[in-house]
Amino acid sequence: MVRSVRQKILSRILCTFWGIALGFHGSLASAESALQPPHGISSHGISMYGSPNLPPDFASLPYVNAEAPKGGSVVLGNSGSFNALNPFVPKGTTPWQMRFWGYESLMGQSQDEPFTLYGLLAESIVTPADRSWVEFTLRPEAQFWDGSPVTVDDVIWSYKTLGTEGILRYRSFWSAVETIEQTGPRSLRLSFNTNNRELALIAGMRPVLKKSQWEGRAFSDAPSDEVPIGSGPYLVSDFEMGRQITFQRNEAYWGKNLPLRRGTNNLNTIKLDFFGDQTVLFEAFKAGELSAIREFNASKWNRDYDFARVRTGKIVKAEISNQAPSGMTGLAFNTRRATLQDWRVREALITAFNFEFINDALTGGQVPRISSYFSNSYLAMNHDAASGQVAQLLEPFSADVPPGTLQGYTLPVSDGNARNRKNLRAARELLEQAGWFVEEGVLRNASGQAFTLNVLLKNGNLGEEEMQKAVDLYRPALERLGIALEVDVIDSAQYIERQAALDYDMIFIRRALSLSPGNEQRLYWGSETANQPSSRNLSGIQSPAIDAMIDTMLSTTDQSEFISAVKALDRLLMAGRYVIPIWHYADSRIAHDQALRAPDTPPIYGDSIYYFPEVWWSQDF
Fold first, then answer.
1. pLDDT in tens, 530-542
2. What does the buried/exposed string (b/e) look like for 561-573 if buried means 16 or more CB atoms within 10 Å of the residue's CB?
3. In degrees, to the nearest 5, what angle opens at C-alpha 209 toward C-alphas 204 and 214?
4. Is the Cβ–Cβ distance between 349 and 580 less than 8 Å?
5. pLDDT digits (tens, 9 = 90+) for 253-279
6. In the predicted model, what is the mean pLDDT of the chain?
7. Parallel, antiparallel or unpaired: strands 484-490 and 506-511
8. Using CA atoms, how far apart are residues 77 and 272, in angstroms rounded to an integer?
9. In DSSP terms, which residues pair with 317 in a beta bridge?
10. Distance between CA atoms of residues 523 and 542, nearest Å
11. How far apart are CA 120 and CA 255, in angstroms?
12. Is the dihedral of CA 165, 171, 173, 174 positive or negative?
């Protein structure tokens, strides 16, 4: 340990020296990469910038209890349903937790660093300074649930198959892979066809499946009840399609003593029960049928969690802080619609959304509004005029970016009164500037077309139930502007079809963002995906400036420029008025059985699928 620390300090001193000698004033990450030979250096981990915080001989992740006992069971609840058990293909709806509990990748992410990976199925990673390729060496002990070894052939097959038959996020990565080839008995190399420093990390995060399970048949056409064989700590032990699924901890799990796994995946069984909506789910929790529940509504947390099991101490209320960006939650405009292409129309609809009144009605005014896609973090834009490197990045696009991008943009604020007269007058003026006028109580354009809005929401989904209440409070303001609002609350299958067909005017959006945003930003906001069926670019954004900021984020070796590019992207998204933002869940809330325990200090990303239930344990067995 002492030696590794000394080596790390010496490396940083040398990097700083060479950075000065070369006249390079960028980040320490770039100085370090300047010392790498062309063939790269083998390492136990990789960071987007700089070096991993943990040394090669680290014992466990810093936010876990390495001595946590194994055992116990929990029952958790999902709203909605499921009709398939293959989480890697577009066909069907699967329990979203499956991907995380049962399947592994070559590397695993630390939740206590912005974006750092450590070896999981792979024991080491090699990449050159420009990260034009990456090479992994598999652990000899890595094996699937059935005891067979994880081989290079399995990895290559998984990457190719998911890249051609899998869901969109896997296909997007595969399009950036120039070659994938075996380089040794346990090693393989991926070379990339684009300058994108994050690809080396993303390559380490693709799931690895067992090739021989799918010999002679198409992976994407598998029966809906067939579970892909994985290598993770949990496997499916029982299920009733649409109603429940049970995950059993694999006692023979190959990686239980890895530093990345020590103190994690402690529960013997995790059962998921499915409920028609969040109200029924909450009642099941109150009755003791569920072991824990996440609560996103601060007002409900303070008001409704005073039932008998809480008062007697059988249920504990835990609040978990984080340092992660807020991401974006709200109603996304479909700018593919002609009525929503003018930024003034979108600004009018945002101005008419009486957030202060709605927030008070639904959360007691206790939850702040999202004011930036990266609120709560050092990546968030400021709301003044752009300056420094942010302004320099935006300047080439100054003639075409939405008003407020360079000058500064803030969301409209109401007086909190239900009538919201001042903001509605401002909204009406914006609509008139865009060519929309009220005639006999109906908003119409010059050709006589009436302005209507269709909002698409999924039935039974927690966030969308809350959004439905917000939309009901929004409706009177739209009616006063002469806009007819139609809300479609539909089941999961219909929702997936409508979303895939891009058939909506407004749709609920929740995008979790990290301290190291990367290639996923192309999927969320990039022009290339705007008109693809099932696009995750829900608003249909097509902006050369946004594409350029994402390109800079992905190619720069200078951490300062990276941060500036993110702040510039944030400005473009906010000033683009693509979403009506709602509240920011700065803290997470989990109510749980008294037998469940969590480590004392949460990671910087706070609560997530990698926190609860992954690092929790039970005292009751």
1. 999 989 999 999 9
2. bbbbbbbbbbbbb
3. 145
4. yes
5. 999 999 999 999 999 999 999 998 889
6. 91
7. unpaired
8. 5
9. 591
10. 12
11. 8
12. positive
| pLDDT greater than 60 at residue 161 | yes
Which one, of 455, 77, 490, lies nearest residue 278 by Cα? 77
Tell me what the mean pLDDT of segment 88-105 comes to. 94
DSSP for 406-474 reads TT--------S-SS-HHHHHHHHHHHHHTT-EEETTEEE-TT-PBPEEEEEEETT-HHHHHHHHHHHHH
**How far is it, in rounded angstroms, from Cα 438 to Cα 3?**
75
Tokens, residue 195: 């300058």
Are the CB atoms for 510 and 329 separated by under 8 Å? Answer: yes
Per-residue confidence at 297, pLDDT binned at 50, 70, 90?
confident
3-class DSSP assignment, residue 308: helix
Q: Are 486 and 454 in contact (CB under 8 A)?
A: yes
What residue type is 379 in one-letter code? L
Look at the block and give the residue holding tokens 């109906």. Answer: 442
The pLDDT value recorded for residue 1 is: 36
Give DSSP secondary structure letters for 201-259. HHHTTSB---GGGGTTS-GGG--TTPPPP--SSEEEEEEETTTEEEEEE-TT-TTTTST
The CA distance from 362 to 301, in Å, is 12
**Phi, psi (5° rounding) for residue 113?**
-135, 150
Between CA 476 and CA 209 the distance in angstroms is 52
pLDDT for the residue numbered 2: 33
For the chain, how many helices (H) and strands (E)? 18, 24
Q: Does residue 613 have a cis peptide bond before it, meaning omega lies within 30 degrees of 0?
A: yes
pTM attached to this predicted model? 0.79
Can you give the pLDDT at residue 38? 53
CA distance 570 to 378: 12
